Fold this protein.
Amino acid sequence: MSDPERLTPKGTLEFLRRLGPRLRPYRAALLLAGVLMLCSVGIGLAFPLVVQRLLDAAFLAGDSALLNRIAIGLLLLFAALAVINFSQSYLTASVSEKVVADLRRDIFGSLVYQPPGFFAKRRVGELSSRLASDSGLIQGVLRFGVPEIIRQVTFLVGALVLVTITNPRLTVVTLTAIPFAASVGWFFGRRVRRLSTNIQDRLADAVARAEQVFTQIRTVQSFTRESFEKEAYMGAVNRARDEGLRRALARASLTGAVTFAAFGAIVGVLWVGGRLVLDGALSPGTLVAFLLYAVTISAAITSLAGFWANLQEAAGAAQRIFEILDHPVAIESPTEPRRLPAPVRGVVRFEGVTFRYEPDLPRVLDGIDLVLDEGATVALVGISGSGKSTLASLIPRFFDVEEGSVTFDGIDVRELALDDLRTRIGIVPQEPMLFGGTVRENLVYGNLEASQAEIEEVSRAAHAADFIETFPDGYDQVVGERGVTLSAGQRQRIAIARVMLERPKLLILDEASSSLDAESEALVQDALERLMGGRTTLVIAHRLSTVIRSDRILVLDEGRIVDEGSHRELLERSEVYDRLYRRQTLEPALP
């Protein structure tokens, strides 16, 4: 949605148009709610007529029996009105809850299928804000705003028809408020919408800042930056506050101006109508009924101004949500995917692969040719930034190649369904991220159907059972956010067991033991060797001691494979590899 659309009724109409299909599944409930609303409005519009009859017939004629009947009738009428309003309110609220739940499901669904590059350019806190607060604004409009707009518009039209029938002269006086109210609503509504969008952006900044601090709390506290982060967070909150104050000023100006216009019209009706009563051209009951209709019209105009402002806020939030829903998924399964032939072997081939993260950035990989044979262990080494992790990310299609191809068992990975491809690949990163649930929940993430016996088997194989069984709740022990209650080695062993349960044909070990102490590294390395048994494995490592026993070692430098061979062969002929090895071992270079 472009900026001009954001500031005009066209943008609001677009917001309502986009919501239309989401309301369609609940049209039966909405239709019933609409019928109930019309009944409620009809009762409200009939009330002034009853008052008119009460004044003109009961009081002027002195008919007490009629007064009693009218009072009893009004009580019954208002009891029916209470039931009608209850039913209509519940139906509207239930639809709003369901629509917003559907909307949040679709937002999350759109996000969860985006490739890692999408999240690299965005803050998680901002996306969380769109899921929570932005959709909450839409929920408020669906629950209260739209139904009340319909109610008040119906009141307004019905009352205008009735006052026109009653006294056209007084109707002209009443209508003087509408052009002014409409122009004020349009002017301030644009500003409210723009400010509401800005507020949501500033709140997203604050949420993103807080989430970043909470996830890096040890770093914050180790550098004693608590006060700094508090000030930074308050800066974001204060910017949201300032935008909120400006929005409050705009809304207050809108409400005040419309209220003055609407009730000014009532004063005009009272003055002109009073003169007509004094002249005998109008009965007191008719004047009171007309005044009640005028109040109804004025209240409807005032309410519509407020609801218009709410609608503008929701439209601004909806724009942020629809930006996510409309964002194309850069990497998707083909419409007619090919299936991997059985049995799956896990053979990977790179042919002339070139890749860069953005069109205007330099190439990260350039002319890569590589074959991972079935059951082979191939290691990638090179300095940071040489392209090792990027190369590995192309196999499960976290990114797509710019030129060339990557094949899995002879089929281009772009021709395979993503779930068919990725379930064959197990990835153990340097810093495994565990979920904040239990040990069991983290383990079965690789295989949701795993039995307890299978869980215990892989835990023993990964050297994780020893420490898991010491926990008070065993496999049901909560590990904390990102596994914070576990050591790095324990997290790594749970990650290895998780991949074991997945039973992949291809392993990608991305610096899987480089950040561990010697004892933990020995346990993890043994677990990795058990995991690697019978599987094609791609090992990415800075610590060359972990790749010495690989079948082949590839040396990457500036996005190119500059050499390959065994550890000894590379020491003898590769200057890059020899330099890497000597830096780590502090041994003198070979003569």
Q: What stands out?
A: The two ends are 66 Å apart (CA to CA).
